[in-house]
Amino acid sequence: MELNYNYVIFNMHDNKWSIDHNAYYTICMEDLFNNPNAVVVTWPLDYASKMTRVLFNIHNSEKINQRIGLPFRGLWYPYYFKNKFNNNKPYCFVIIDYYYPEDYFLFLKNKYPDCKIVFLHRDLLSRFIPPYTGASFVDLEMTYDKNEAQTHNMEHFNEFESKIEVPISKDYPESDVYFAGNIKDRLEKVLTAYQVFTEAGLKCKFYLVGVKENDRVDLPGIEYGNSFIPYAEMLYHSVNSRCILEINQDLADGYTSRFLEAVMFNKRLITNNQSIKSSDFYNNDYIQIVEDFSKIDTDFVKSEEPVDYHYANQFSPIHLIEKIDGILSTKQ
């Protein structure tokens, strides 16, 4: 598809010191790193030398600037990304990270008068309203959540992720059911599902983050952590399980990474995400949607029927910029 804009994507950052191709946000954008229509910024000046990045990070340190307020930080603005485009198309800046100051967007509008600035919301606006929502310099805002798209009169986008190569364990499957996530309000549901699976003789591998010490229950197959494991490692455990468990956060209505992973790697999925029923990939032989985790059908996990969603890169971020391009073309 011929695009009308050159795309510069300011991705959520995984690492302020180097590009980490094993980390979640970087993996999501992997398909665009070598795409001629796009530049992915994992953090300002990520293309520069280590010493330059050290100086930038010190000069722009939140802790330092909260105390002192260092001057001349705008001198870095022209170097936030490396221009690789050799055509005269206008720029579209896609912002997924809220780190960037308002002055930077005003700088972009001044330097590139015909540019577009697009904000993507990959979290619920009911939890966090970004500082630039509704700002005059924003040409388009989009959210992954269908309900919030209607509430805030925004365009909707489906979650995106690049498919990478993941090795298969010689001991496959290493688990029957895999779950990983920040527990937030889901601990009771996780433990309920765990009990159902283990009573059916299934092997669980759960990695739980954010569980308070006094709430931790020592059970076989459950590991507690204070931080996330690298996303590439988490993908390895997902791919080498028979089934992925997803327990969606309350109120969210949109595709999630667990759903994308299940489809991309042909895994069974158990989820409480009702919105998946509207997906072209929905197949009740492969996806079990539940409301009560005490009533999971465990025979679903034990099934030997091959899983094939016929995935053909529909979740690639390439399609995301194509959608943005189409929306912007109708607004001209």
Compact description:
The protein is an alpha/beta fold and 332 residues long. The protein has helices at residues 24-28, 50-59, 62-67, 102-111, 146-151, 187-199, 231-239, 257-264, 299-302, 317-331; strands at 6-10, 38-41, 91-95, 116-121, 140-143, 155-156, 175-182, 204-209, 222-225, 241-246, 268-271, 287-289.
Describe this structure in words.
It is globular, with a radius of gyration of 21 Å. It contains 10 helices and 12 strands. Helices cover 26% and strands 17% of the residues. Strands 2-1-3-4-5-6 form a 6-stranded parallel beta sheet. The model has no long low-confidence stretch (mean pLDDT 93). The longest helix has 15 residues, at 317-331. β1 (6-10), α1 and β2 form a beta-alpha-beta unit. The protein is α/β, with parallel strands linked by helices. It starts with 5 loop residues before the first strand and ends with a helix. The protein folds into 2 domains: 6-162 and 316-331, no CATH class; 175-302, Rossmann fold, CATH 3.40.50. It has helices spanning 24-28, 50-59, 62-67, 102-111, 146-151, 187-199, 231-239, 257-264, 299-302, 317-331, and strands at residues 6-10, 38-41, 91-95, 116-121, 140-143, 155-156, 175-182, 204-209, 222-225, 241-246, 268-271, 287-289. The relative contact order is 0.14.
Mean pLDDT: 93
What are the segments in which pLDDT stays under 50 over at least 5 consecutive residues? none
The strands making up the biggest β-sheet line up spatially as: 2-1-3-4-5-6
Query: How many helices in DSSP terms?
Result: 10
Q: Structural class, from helix and strand content?
A: alpha/beta
Distance N terminus to C terminus? 19 Å
Radius of gyration from the CA trace? Answer: 21 Å
Share of residues in strands: 15-25%
Helicity range of the residues? 25-40%
Name the shape in a single word. Answer: globular
Tell me the number of structural domains. 2
What's the number of extended β-strand segments? 12
Largest sheet: 6 strands, parallel
Question: Helix and strand string, N-terminal first?
Answer: EHEHHEHEEHEEHEEHEHEEHH
